[in-house]
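Provenance and format

Records in this collection were gathered into a single text stream. Each protein contributes a sequence line and a token line. The two records reproduced below are adjacent in the stream.
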Amino acid sequence: MGRFASLLVGGAVGAVAAFLFSPRNGAENRAVLSEKISEQAAKLPAGVKDQANSALSALASGSTVAINTVVDNGSDALKVVKGKVKPVPAAVEQAAAPVLSEADDLREKIDAARERIATQVAKNAEAVQDAAVDKVPGLVDAALEAKAQAGAHASTAQEAISDTAAALKERIIGSAKESTDAAAEAAEEASDKE
């Protein structure tokens, strides 16, 4: 193959690569390519058209071979990359297995601790309720008894105060009479001496 043919094949391969990596979809690329070829073909004389058709046929077959080679090599490269990428997730899974197992163990321990705490809280609540039920009637009885005793003591105290007040009243009245009598006697004695 000469230099010109190599140039044409290289240009064709570049054009194919440009179409493969263009942002347009395949149908748009074919429409653009067909339009450009039709415009250029209309401008060429008949002899040039024949030479261009033969060059285009040679270019198409050469580019097909080149494209197939690139696709095959790309497929082989993809298989190699996939072969190297597959062990990585497996290695990650192997490395993560003990951590995941430990996380599962911790989750089970936490769940078990939650159950124990809930059971203990329920037992404590029952114990408090039982103690309250047991103590409340006793406390009510003790309060009623204390009230009765306080009432009895209050009555006794009131009687004692009344008795003491009556006794004091009698004493004061007695003392007042004695003082009055003593004063009257003293006044009589004083009037007798006069």
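Adjacent record:
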Amino acid sequence: MLKKKWMILVAGMMLLGTGCGAKKEMMEQSEAAQKQEAAPAGENRRAGEAAKETDEPEQTGTSQEDLVYPQKDVSFIIPFSAGGGTDSLMRMVGSEMEKVTGQAFIINNIPGNGGAVGMTELTKAAPDGYTIAGSSVYDVLGSSFLGGDTVVYTEKDFKFICGVNVEAEVFIANPSTGFETIEDMITFAKEHPGELTVSTSGVTHNLLLGILEDRLGVKVANIAYSGGGDNFNALMGGHVDVALIGKKFASQVEGTDFKVLCAMAPEELSSLPGVPAFCKIYPEVVLPPSCRVIVAPGDTPDEVVKKLEAIVKEATDTEAFRQKMAEAGELYQFTEGSQVEAALEETAKVLKEAIEKNPAVFGLE
């Protein structure tokens, strides 16, 4: 579990205006026009997959579509415990990918240190497309920046295959608090510094709490868990006052006395009708956009990355899958890997500059 210093990763995020949460569909790329890059000489990443380098001109008709992948089961690392938002969503995605490819995508939950343990395992895997992971942009970026000596990777050690949703977290209050609105919660937190207990599960939640602390002057007690399932159980068991948790859990408290106070989003989400958007109530707070992503080791060949991207798009860009996601409280959006990486690169640049200017804000002094 990452140290409490996650809570104060704020300054850089205030400056963000772009990311993978854009509210529109991405145009489907023409797969037929994409050329398969020749593999380095002598390299045999997988029999029958990598083309041998020759002195002859590239043959016409060779493309990412011609790559025979996958030919065996794929290990799908989830760096959080079972039952959380990332775990649930990636299980749905993996199931659809199995239908497209005829191969199994085997979920391997490796929680710990805010997702850093599982992502470290990904860096050790062979870059052949047979080990991938599901995480979020800010979980990867946050852990690589502030994880200290226990985190051996940076965002440059991965290739981001694609994004698959529009992400937003929600605050859900235990009925014992008496909170009816997000304003009730913020007022209490201001009047009783450090007394409000808030359960979280992952770096993204800590970033959001840090933003609230910085912009609104609140101080809460962050009770961190290794996954959304544990987070939710803590709330339902009365161990915390409020949970900051994935929006899919909002549907699980319908018909109960637990209150969904708001969605941490700039606009009200169609998947959460009647739940106010935090930024409409507190417009002075700028929230970083977020999405969950599929990630591969950094040296994975481009042709394998493009093949994976195409498989995910084919598997998920259907009305049936959109409906399945909606029923699970998720909002589907496919974001190409190049767009995810461009947004992440810009975000990383802003954060690094902010950390250099004021390392104390980030707990680095």
